[in-house]
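Memo to structure team: turn this sequence into structure tokens by end of day. - J.P.
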Amino acid sequence: MKVILLFFISFISALSQAQTGKLIYGSTVQKEERSKEELYLMAKMWFATEFKNSVVQDNEQEGRLSAEVFFEYQPSSSQSDTRAKGRIKYTVTILTKGGQYEYEITDFRHEPSNRSKGISVGLLTNNDVFPDRKDKQRELKDKIWKDIKSELSRIVFPVYLSLNEAMDTMNVPNHNGE
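Reply from structure team:
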């Protein structure tokens, strides 16, 4: 129940970004029994496990880790055009502090597999429809846009669950090396 509640809180955070238009899933999670250093090491281990083939940018002094990752996108709706098949790249960032960590999953960008003949909707925002209302392929891109956004919860929720579980269960050596 706690996990579901935290997940919905993260979606509330995403909705609060409506003013900027940026699509962000994220939240602050309290771990009062953990130091900044412990949380940083746990987050680093999680990145190494969850995103093995990604380059992780890290700044231990700030307690910040981030990586650009992706998932393969296959149009699921019969109304979506197969020319939209490709990748959705996104960024996962964790900032650790004493007793808490913040995570943010954002910067979702669609790239078709076939760059010359593919159809791309680009950067996803909080808009319900494809934002360029003057685009000649607007109606098609609206369908692709909605299809991709419906896929995001299928992708983001497992990432969140994996992070939450890792930050709850990972053991890190204490400062005495025990």
